[in-house]
Amino acid sequence: MRVNWHQKLHIEPPEGWLNDPNGLSYFNGKYHVYFQYSPGSAEGKTPRCWGHYSGKSLLDLTYEGIVLQPTIHEDKDGVYSGSAVVWNSLLHIFYTGNVKEEGDYDYIYHGRGANVIHVTSKDGQAMSEKQVVLRNSDYPDFCSCHVRDPKVWRQNDTWYMVLGARTRDDKGCVLFYRSNDLKTWDYFCCTSAEGYGYMWECPDYFKINGHAFLSVSPQGMASETDRYQNLYQSGYFRADDGLTDFTELDMGFDFYAPQTFEAPDGRRILLGWMGMDCKDYQNATVPLGWQHCMTLPRVLTVSGDGHLLQNPIRELDALRHDGQQLQAGTRATFSPAFELNGKPEGDFKVSLAGGLAFGYDGNYMYLKFSNDRLGCGRTVRRARVDECRDFRMIVDCSSVEVYINGGRTVMSTRFYPQSEKVSVLAEGTTLEVWQLTSA
Ligand code: FRU
After folding, report:
1. What's the CA-to-centroid distance between 82 and ligand 1, angstroms?
2. Gap between the Cα atoms of 193 and 172, Å rounded
3. What is the CA(201)–ligand 1 centre distance, in A?
4. CA-CA distance, 223 to 141, in Å (whole number)?
5. Using one digit for the tens of pLDDT, what is the confidence trace for 186-223?
6. Å from CA of 80 to ligand 1 middle
7. Residue of 295, 20, 298, 292 whose CA lies nearest to 148
8. Closest by CA position to 312, among listed 301, 324, 323
9. Are 251 and 365 in contact (CB under 8 A)?
10. Is 20 in the pocket of ligand 1 (CB under 6 A)?
């Protein structure tokens, strides 16, 4: 019997390949989650489109189909990432139309078009004509051809857009534009920081409790033992006064290109791509015709010392049933999805499915694979913390996300259990276990 690796709580593509979350919004009484979609190719080889999920609960969304695909010269090689805002009863979507000109180009400094395209929708599903609002010739001269992923928001009666970019001298930065009507956009500044790679993708700017944050996904940062361990990174700067304190959003193997939006009750909610376009490790679902998923929706709050805390949205708590204690040293098996909560008082280790260990060794939180069928090339990821006071681990059919110390540190990974039930053995801590869905 084949093990079911289809997720119960996480958004997946109906088939084919999924990457970045796009156009996150609440519109006409429903949540809308769009995503970068390569239909028909688990390896992401067909031109990118936008797929669409919607529903009344972020944990119970329905797949609605493909809503945007390449149809004009300005997006002929992909409807790339972007965002959505609601204005005057319409959903306004801004995305990057990717163009690769025919010829012998490097596609970095020459030969690539990156157009900001605007469409509107009355229902989130049917889209208007495409209007190109920015082209490469509109970007500052210091930019290479890599400028993309518009994120739009409204502040004090003005619309703002941030775009990720690579300068001609290979530095990641973001460009800020503003507009009064969502149609004409004026460039007004660029911001960057030394030492954060050659390209910043998927920028997002938002405020929580009056504190400003700029989140970006930098490419080209050198890996260290306990930082920047993946091929590409995702993190945030505090942006109240310049860009300071870059902090990675997730210390696991599979996380990139997050986007946030404001829910109707004011919560700032983040979804990330629980994936990485990295040759060192794979996903066992590719031969089955699909690959990748999103993270759980995470609510963002700010700690007393100005750091972002990420925790699963509270809607997840309502799914809990059949709670039980698992004593240290006792092994038991559970059907995903389930969660494990611990309040350790020192070093501890939780072993899952006979080959994935999560724990604290006095210096580092770690996720460590000892069975390659489970990890498909994944080895170890570390996060330095002074102590581990609490953790909440969400185990779905092929993923594990751990929220540590009230959500200050998060580690996410895909894993591919070889049996339907996942064995759990905790050493050095008692666990509180909850089923999150029926088997
Ligand atoms: C990030 C990214 C974006 C781009 C999209 C294309 O994963 O490379 O910069 O818009 O994916 O799918």
Report:
1. 9
2. 8
3. 7
4. 31
5. 999 999 999 999 999 999 999 999 999 999 999 999 99
6. 6
7. 20
8. 301
9. yes
10. yes
Q: Ligand 1 within 6 A of 254 CB? A: no
Distances (CA, A) of 64 to 12, 68, 406: 13, 12, 35
**Residue 397 Cα distances to 53, 82, 401, angstroms:** 20, 29, 12
* Tokens (6 digits) for 298: 């995470």
Round to whole Å and give the CA distance between 361 and 64: 45
SS3 409: strand
Tokens of 188: 């007004």
Atom number in ligand 1 closest to CA 82: 10
- C-alpha 197/C-alpha 165 separation (Å) is 11
Contact residues for 176 (Cβ-Cβ < 8 A; gap 6+): 160, 161, 162, 187, 188, 189, 190, 191
Whether the model pTM is above 0.85:
yes
Q: Is 20 a catalytic residue?
A: yes
Model pLDDT for residues 285-301, shown as the tens digit of each residue: 999 999 999 999 999 99
Write out the DSSP string of 156-198.
TTEEEEEEEEEETTS-EEEEEEEESSSSS-EEEEEEE-TTS-S
Give Cα separations from 128 to 83, 116, 118, 122, 315 (angstroms).
16, 15, 9, 9, 33
